[in-house]
Amino acid sequence: MRRLLPLALLITAPAFADPLVSTITEGNAHTNAPESWLGATPHIVFIGTINGYDFDAQFMDLNADFIAGVDSKREYLPEGEMLRYADFEFGLQAIVAGVEKTFELEFENHDFSTAALPATFDLQSEEFPMGALSNLEFEFEWEGNGTSVNEEIANWTGTLTLELDSGVGTSDPQGDGMIGGYVDAKRGDDHLVASFTVPVNEYEIDE
User: Fold this and answer.
1) pTM for the full model?
2) What is the dihedral of CA 53, 46, 133, 130, to 10 degrees?
């Protein structure tokens, strides 16, 4: 798997960062961005700088009191009498440094169910791409002190490595199980590294 930047450079936010600009969770276990998937225990970690916002978010216990909720789902698209597993997304709502924040990552492919895991997808901008390609959209939102932040960031390059997904290998919609993987993505001067393993809550068929 290729690396886009030295990972040690990613954690650059100052110790007393403005929580409306930086998202830094307390008691972080990792001093650098992870170089690979952190494993099957549920977690969400994302580290980097995006549109001038700094992230060192390490949610290693998804049942922690400061986490309001974790939602994830698979989305399916009809094709004749079949369904294609074309999208998965997961989101988290949490209080970080006294600010209520929402985050969501979403990935697309023509049909994730045909992948042989672990599978690496090159990130690009096309929707529902065929083969070993995917795209990423990262959304984050919060407000405070008269400031409102609502960003939807797409058009990344880099890689998604899908390590775990109980929705792979079956054509039947799956609204449970787990999804886990690793992301190393770049967009201009922005760089995002993420590791995740999340329980799936639902599925949706997009007509």
Assistant:
1) 0.90
2) -90
- The mean pLDDT of 140-169, rounded to a whole number, is 96
Longest CA–CA span in the chain (Å) reads 56
CA dist 167 → 129, 148, 185, 199 (Å)? 18, 36, 24, 12
Is residue 188 scored above 70 in pLDDT?
yes
DSSP 32-59: S--SS---SS-EEEEEEEETTEEEEEEE
**In angstroms, rounded to a whole number, what is the distance separating the alpha carbons of residues 8 and 130?**
33
CA distances for 73 relative to 78, 83, 104, angstroms: 17, 15, 11
User: Two tokens at 149?
Assistant: 């932040």
pLDDT tens, 22-60? 999 999 999 999 999 999 999 999 999 999 999 999 999
- pLDDT surpassing 50 at residue 184: yes
Interatomic CA distance for residues 196 and 184, integer angstroms: 12
Contact call for residues 74 and 107 (beta carbons, < 8 A): no
Separation CA 101–CA 20 (nearest Å): 10
Domain borders along the chain are: 22-28+39-205
